[in-house]
């Protein structure tokens, strides 16, 4: 759990954060024990090597930051470090001062995003990052070490130099990629990306063992409320969620990750608190997909962001590309505002004021956002309850006590909507 750090000076806060991150990283290797010196036997597979790299702070300039600093396994592979005023909406970099502008997404289930490109309809799909600017996990992994606001290394050669410092890496890289892998910095850097991606593609990151998965396998029952949420999320008549957060995977429901991997502008407001703190220019606008170099500024892509997976969503807040909403229920209510005529639905429950205007007013997916009736409270709660069942087993303890799945839920009838999941949304 993050230490409450408000009121502590910046230096002390930074020290505590780095120390906390560092000690967390140090412990596992200290306990690994019985290491075979420099044989690479510690990382017998590409996945294991990638896992080690993922946790290695030596890949950052000041040796304070690893991938896992911002993608902490114990917290759904997201960043839980708190910054004053903005919580963990965006990430603090290795330099201890740079704050990003986007929320760190989970790397779990990220492997299901296909390489970035266009589908047969000419729509952009797939890729990594909120704007898809890295096509694959292999491409993505090369980004953070060289990003000045993240791990801050000056170039590929200096990253490779850090890799060479570790004799275990020398041996493991040799085994995986051939003895001459370190002779060329480009090749070595790319090899590091491949190892990191192999870890991210491993089953350890996509466990499919949430209550929902257990329900699909007939091992567990959903409460009536969760079941109502599931039915709603499966339908295209009662909600529009399924249009974008597709319940079906490639092989049916069992590998569904709740995204069609496409890009939409759903009218998310700017996170003004973040912009105040991170030193953005007053006229800063996150154009999303239009900022992806492969899209070369196409105005029709302004404001569009990748539809995120909803797996582990209840434990990976705050929400949206900029972390502007804290509660899951707020996100669901945000969608209700588009269709509801009720004045109460035009209020953001987190601010008590009217929903802030979209950051990018063009290209809003109004057709999709208004294609289903407004949800009433009962249905909003049911969807939230269902979304909680998408929490992997190891993260279930993170659901707070009053949020525990299947506990204390009121009995709701689902008879009014009887849609078989397999036929829903067709
Ligand atoms: C300083 C914090 C930070 C560090 C360190 C960091 N990341 Fe990230 N990561 C982010 C943020 C923020 C984003 C979203 C950025 C964006 O969309 O522009 C992101 C996005 C990603 C994504 C895309 C996920 C998706 O669904 O689109 C992957 C994969 C990823 N990071 C893996 C890594 C790996 C591997 C490393 C180490 C080499 C790493 N990250 C280091 C903060 C960090
Ligand atoms: C038109 C496509 C579309 C529809 C319809 C849609 N979503 Fe989304 N959803 C998105 C996109 C795109 C984002 C990310 C937007 C951003 O960050 O700017 C998102 C974000 C979210 C998030 C936050 C994810 C995160 O990681 O921060 C949740 C939760 C969510 N949607 C749930 C729902 C639910 C529930 C419904 C139905 C009531 C729904 N969505 C309908 C496209 C859609």
Features:
about 425 residues; mainly alpha; Cytochrome Bc1 Complex, Chain D, domain 2; two-stranded antiparallel ribbon; two-stranded antiparallel sheet; disordered N terminus; disordered C terminus; binds heme C
Protein described:
The protein has helices at 10-32, 46-54, 67-70, 137-141, 143-146, 156-165, 167-177, 185-201, 211-216, 224-234, 241-244, 272-277, 328-336, 366-369, 377-388; strands spanning 117-118, 124-125, 263-264, 305-306, 347-348, 353-354. With 426 residues, it is mainly alpha-helical. The strands form 3 sheets. The chain has a two-stranded antiparallel ribbon with strand order 1-2. It is globular, with a radius of gyration of 22 Å. The relative contact order is 0.13. Mean pLDDT is 86; it is low at 1-37 and 406-426.
CATH architecture of the largest domain: Orthogonal Bundle
Please summarize the sheet with the most strands.
2 strands, antiparallel
Report the count of strand segments. Answer: 6
Structural class assignment: mainly alpha
Strand content: under 5%
Radius of gyration: 22 Å
Please write out the topology:
Blueprint: H1 10-32, H2 46-54, H3 67-70, E1 117-118, E2 124-125, H4 137-141, H5 143-146, H6 156-165, H7 167-177, H8 185-201, H9 211-216, H10 224-234, H11 241-244, E3 263-264, H12 272-277, E4 305-306, H13 328-336, E5 347-348, E6 353-354, H14 366-369, H15 377-388
Antiparallel strand pairs: 1-2, 3-4, 5-6
Helix pairs in contact: 2-8, 6-8, 10-15, 13-15
Bound molecules: heme C (2 copies).
One heme C binds next to helix 11, helix 13 and helix 14.
């Amino acid at each position: 759990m993050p230490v409450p750090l408000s009121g502590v000076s910046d230096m002390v806060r930074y020290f505590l954060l780095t120390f906390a991150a560092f000690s967390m990283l140090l412990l596992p290797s200290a306990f690994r024990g019985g290491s075979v010196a420099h044989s690479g036997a510690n990382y017998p597979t590409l996945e294991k090597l990638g896992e080690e790299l993922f946790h290695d702070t030596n890949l950052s300039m000041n040796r304070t930051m690893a991938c896992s600093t911002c993608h902490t396994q114990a917290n759904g592979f997201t960043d839980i470090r708190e910054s004053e005023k903005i919580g963990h909406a965006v990430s603090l970099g290795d330099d201890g001062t740079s704050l990003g502008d986007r929320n760190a997404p989970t790397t779990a289930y990220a492997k299901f995003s296909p390489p970035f490109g266009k589908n047969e309809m000419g729509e952009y799909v797939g890729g990594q990052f909120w704007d898809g600017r890295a096509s694959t996990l292999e491409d993505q992994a090369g980004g953070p070490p060289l990003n000045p606001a993240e791990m801050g290394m000056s170039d590929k050669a200096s990253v490779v130099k850090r890799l060479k410092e570790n004799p275990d890496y020398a041996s493991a890289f040799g085994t995986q990629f051939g003895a001459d892998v370190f002779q060329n910095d480009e090749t070595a850097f790319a090899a590091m990306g491949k190892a990191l991606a192999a870890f991210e593609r491993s089953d350890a990151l996509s466990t499919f063992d949430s209550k929902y998965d257990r329900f699909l396998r007939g091992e567990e029952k959903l409460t009536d409320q969760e079941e109502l949420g599931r039915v709603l999320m499966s339908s295209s008549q009662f909600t529009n969620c399924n249009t974008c957060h597709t319940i079906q995977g490639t092989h049916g429901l069992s590998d569904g990750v709740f995204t069609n991997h496409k890009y939409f502008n759903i009218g998310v407001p700017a996170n003004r608190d973040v912009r105040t703190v991170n030193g953005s220019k007053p006229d800063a606008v996150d154009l999303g997909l239009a900022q992806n170099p492969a899209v070369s500024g196409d105005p029709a892509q302004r404001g569009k962001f990748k539809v995120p997976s909803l797996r582990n969503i209840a434990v990976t807040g705050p929400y949206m590309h900029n972390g502007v909403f804290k509660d899951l229920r707020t996100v669901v209510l945000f969608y209700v505002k588009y269709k509801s005529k009720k004045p109460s639905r035009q209020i953001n429950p987190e601010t008590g004021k009217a929903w802030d205007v979209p950051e990018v007013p063009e290209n809003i997916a109004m057709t999709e956002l208004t294609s289903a009736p407004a949800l009433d409270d009962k249905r909003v709660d049911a969807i939230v309850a269902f979304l909680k069942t998408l929490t992997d087993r190891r993260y279930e303890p993170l659901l707070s006590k009053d949020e525990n799945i299947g506990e204390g839920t009121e009995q709701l009838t689902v008879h009014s909507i009887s849609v078989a999941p397999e036929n829903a949304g067709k």
